[in-house]
Write a structure and sequence with these properties.
Mean pLDDT: 87
Radius of gyration: 20 Å
CATH class of the largest domain: Alpha Beta
Order of helices and strands: EHHEEEHEEEEHEEEEEEHEEHH
Number of helices: 7
Shape: globular
Number of domains: 3
Largest sheet: 10 strands, mixed
Strand content: 25-35%
CATH architecture of the largest domain: 2-Layer Sandwich
């Protein structure tokens, strides 16, 4: 490449780190080379300087300076999926229409790949084309260990509409979690800026001051639904902003980490092993304007490990979301 290249970020790439975006488009570019280009200001996002950990948004333009590298399509290394892969990924579908697919993502399945992640949802999306000519597009993400509703757009127009709704905060995303202790007050809003700390591999967000150069505004709402004595609480959570690990970091910051969260909490709460040590965070429901008009609302049942915990604690996982809407 001998000239400056201006590359527009797609909706499928929303939320991707700038360094990972370069890894997808220019796999032969070394990390040190990219850092040098960033420090010298040769790489820019929407005309401004950027850091390697900057999160990209659809529609932004990345300035790529002349390099002795060939650009690769983001999906150039996409794996060929097997019939078993197709059956598996189609078994996750909980809503399907001409514009949108909704999946019930199981815990432990990464949404996108990384250095140590070979199997991920993005690599299975060809199995969800059905008879459409286009591959479905990711419009948002869930953490690897978080389960629940994940939306896919079935064409570019739908991706734009859903992406705009998410960016404009027209979507209501409701999560269910089991947390340590009982938050007080029973309903509240957490407004604590977050910043990624600890290096490129940690993926750990920390509460920081608003004057921190890496600070990102982060706001979450919560409501206690039921409690098990003073030790555990079932809470509903609503992320108003969409930062990495936001709900996990926020609940830990107010002293009530999510059960099973080894990164932000103790990783366990019951020494006898009655409660599974896996993360107890589930994207229960999303309500969003549908690209074809009206509003789409999709719910996903609790995963097995959380359902077992709810049964152990006497919580009713079938409670109607309508009963809880006034909590938001």
């Amino acid at each position: 490449m001998s000239t400056v290249d201006l590359v527009e970020v797609t909706h499928e790439e929303t939320g991707m780190r700038l360094d990972r975006w370069f890894r997808a488009h220019y796999p032969d570019l070394k990390h040190g080379q990219l850092q040098k280009l960033l420090r010298s200001g040769q790489v820019r996002v929407d005309g401004g300087r950027a850091k390697a950990n900057a999160r990209l948004e659809a529609g932004q333009t990345v300035r790529v300076p002349p390099m002795k590298l060939e650009r690769s399509a983001p999906d150039a290394k996409r794996l060929v999926i097997t019939p078993d892969d197709i059956r598996f990924v189609q078994s996750l579908v909980i809503h399907k229409d001409d514009q949108v697919l909704a999946l019930d993502k199981p815990p432990g399945l990464a949404v996108q790949g990384g250095t140590k992640t070979q199997r991920h949802l993005d690599g299975l999306l060809d199995g969800l084309k059905y008879k459409a000519s286009e591959r479905p597009r990711l419009v948002h993400r869930l953490d690897k260990d978080t389960s629940g509703v994940l939306l896919l757009a079935r064409n570019r127009r739908a991706a734009t509409a859903l992406g705009d709704a998410l960016k404009g905060r027209e979507a209501i995303k409701t999560y269910w979690a089991l947390v340590e202790g009982v938050p007080a007050p029973a309903r509240g809003e957490i407004s604590l800026p977050l910043a990624k700390k600890g290096g490129a591999q940690s993926e750990r967000m920390q509460v920081c001051g608003a004057d921190d150069e890496d600070a990102q505004r982060a706001v979450s709402r919560y409501a206690v639904i039921e409690t098990a004595g003073r030790k555990l609480s079932w809470v509903a959570l609503w992320p108003i902003t969409g930062r990495t690990h936001q709900l996990r970091a926020h609940m830990a910051a107010i002293g009530h980490p999510i059960v099973g969260d080894g990164k932000y909490g103790s990783g366990h709460v019951v020494s006898g092993g009655e409660i599974d040590n896996r993360l107890h965070l589930h994207a229960r429901e999303i309500s969003i304007p549908h690209p074809a008009g009206g509003r789409l609302k999709v719910s996903a049942p609790l995963p097995d490990h959380m359902r077992k915990t709810w049964k152990l604690l006497g919580f009713d996982p079938e409670r109607s979301m309508a009963e809880l809407e006034d909590l938001f």
